[in-house]
Amino acid sequence: MGDRPVCDIICKLDCVCRDYNFDGIKLSPLDELNQQLDILMARYRSGDGTGASLVTPATSCVQDSSQAIYATIKKITSEIASNPQIQEWLKTHPTDAQTQRFHQLVALGKSLEKVLIPLGIVRPDWRKNAKLAGIHANSKNSHFARITNPVKAAISYRTMLPRRTQDEIAKILLKQGSFLWIIRTNQVGGFDANIQPIAPTRL
Questions:
Q1: Domain spans of the chain?
Q2: What is the pLDDT of residues 144-180, one digit of tens each?
């Protein structure tokens, strides 16, 4: 506080924040996201078996948060697509508010994937996290399994810079009708023009 001019964005979007109940089958995107983040934290503790967790262009807080979002999208859409009872519920309730929310969630997932995997190639470590969460990952890109960090970073280049990723995801959520609450906690009381946030810039 009073030093670094940072800001946070709190997002509220019903299709993500509200749970789904398809005749007793309950799904919660937020709970799923928390589970994905728990998996990442567990992997940090062991460094994926190496004993060290290092920050690189391919491995950072923003890359890992994006990975958790990707795995959440894949898990929820995969559960819904593979469950006949849910599919039947959606067909028999086409105008229901929950159906509309679900379609909005699918649209959100597609928009986010364009940012998270801009080249259409899913990083092997992202597929690994998805597999830990119970998703059968597509193995057609398995020849990337021993890819180097710079190439991993290039595959997910849009999620390399924290500020850019925040802005990209915030824009997508805003277009989907999300409420965004921008909070600056670095300056509480008074006013100091010397610590105003600098406008975001490209690399």
A1: 8-195
A2: 434 456 666 666 666 667 778 888 888 888 998 889 9
